[in-house]
Amino acid sequence: MLDRVVAEVFNAGFVVVNRSSDDSASSTSVQVSSSSHPERSAVIRVDPVWVEGFVPELNVQTALLVDDYGEEDDDELGAYREAELTKLCRVMRAYLLGGGQVTTRRRLFGRGSTFILKIEADGFEWRLGQNHWAGPKPI
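Below the sequence we write its predicted structure tokens.
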């Protein structure tokens, strides 16, 4: 499913590298970078319970829960997972094409600050953070 959705969302202007290990217990993931903004990259991970988007250069992430704990049939669950993965890939695509606004906030404990990345995609605002995230929220 990950390969199919990534191929649909990311065109020839992107470089996609498979980062999955041979261990079947680990999640599957790809790293995507853009030829127009080579300083930006995104890692997209898929697990049976969640899908995650991670931006390594900012150390921020977001995730969506995609497990229904057995409440839907397999066809409906598969369609739901694919739709959520597509949303997440579109957010990462917007970032890789130069979108998003980066702000900083003070750390609660210790010195320094952390980044927060706000991205608008498909009529929703997503907030990616280091230890928290919020998304998607209608604009």
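The two ends are 29 Å apart (CA to CA).
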